[in-house]
Specification:
Shape: globular
Number of domains: 2
CATH topology of the largest domain: Aminopeptidase
Oligomer: single chain
Strand content: 15-25%
Number of helices: 8
CATH architecture of the largest domain: 3-Layer(aba) Sandwich
């Protein structure tokens, strides 16, 4: 049975998170989370995203979702602020099991090494009484990936290739810690919004992403389009009605 990993892009929607140097934390965390999800899908694990779009969710909603599906691991991704620099990871300050520590150590090693390769500081392994670490019923870790209000860190965070490499490093750490193997040659995500729209589906990507942006087709709300599922009459009714609503909204502009 594959392991279920929940990836939580911090903040979102009305909660922008930290701001600095023309960047918003909620945008960066989503970009990184989608990249981590894409990488970890290559292991065959069941990857669930707390959010795959700019959505407002409470801390309680986040952990309640992970707990409700019986996830095996919870990863929360954030960007720091406060004038520092570099990377740090967190576990709950209460009692944690050996799996929690082992997986965090693997993630920290890979991610800190990636930051160090750019001359950015390893701020260490820390603990805190964060809600997502305390209330999740599975091993969990929270990452603070650079300082948005530090010009040096922000320069890196503005670079898409840096973010891609960061997501891969985090994903490698998760895979190592959980004993997952990355299968070579697995399809990579090619949709902006759905992790299961992959290479081989290029002809449909512009249409899928366009329909998502118009609010007509939303997938499962967790970043999955479910491209191979059959469409039942209930789903068809919802999609057709949303399409009609969209067309009417454009006519009435």
């Amino acid at each position: 049975m594959s392991q279920t990993i929940v990836i939580d892009a911090g903040h979102g929607g009305s909660d922008s998170g930290a701001l600095g140097n023309g960047l918003r934390e909620k945008d960066l965390t989503l970009t990184i989370a989608l990249g981590v999800a894409n990488f970890l899908r290559q292991t065959g694990a069941d990857i669930r995203l707390i959010r795959s779009t700019d959505t407002t969710l409470s801390l309680t909603q986040r952990t309640a979702f992970a707990n409700s599906i019986g996830a095996d691991y919870y990863l929360s991704i954030h960007i720091n602020a406060g004038g520092g620099t570099g990377f740090e990871s967190y576990l709950w300050s209460g009692p944690v099991d050996s799996t929690t520590t082992r997986v965090r150590d693997a993630i920290h090693q890979k991610t800190a090494a990636y930051f160090a390769s750019f001359g950015l500081r390893d701020r260490g392994k820390k603990t805190a009484d964060f809600h997502v670490l305390r209330e999740s019923k599975m091993p969990a870790c929270l990452l603070e990936c650079g300082f948005i209000d530090n010009a040096t860190d922000a320069t890196r965070l503005k670079n898409s290739s840096f973010l891609e490499g960061l997501a891969k490093a985090i994903g490698q750490g998760v895979a190592t810690g959980l004993g997952l193997t990355v299968a070579p040659g697995e399809p990579a995500q090619i949709s902006k919004y759905f992790v299961d729209v992959v290479k081989g589906m290029e002809h449909a990507v512009p249409h899928i992403d366009s329909l998502f942006e118009k609010g007509i087709i939303l997938g499962d709300g967790k970043g999955h389009f479910l491209p191979k599922n059959t469409v039942d009459r209930l789903t068809l009714a919802v999609v057709v009605d949303r399409a009609i609503e969209y067309i009417l909204s454009q006519i009435n502009k």
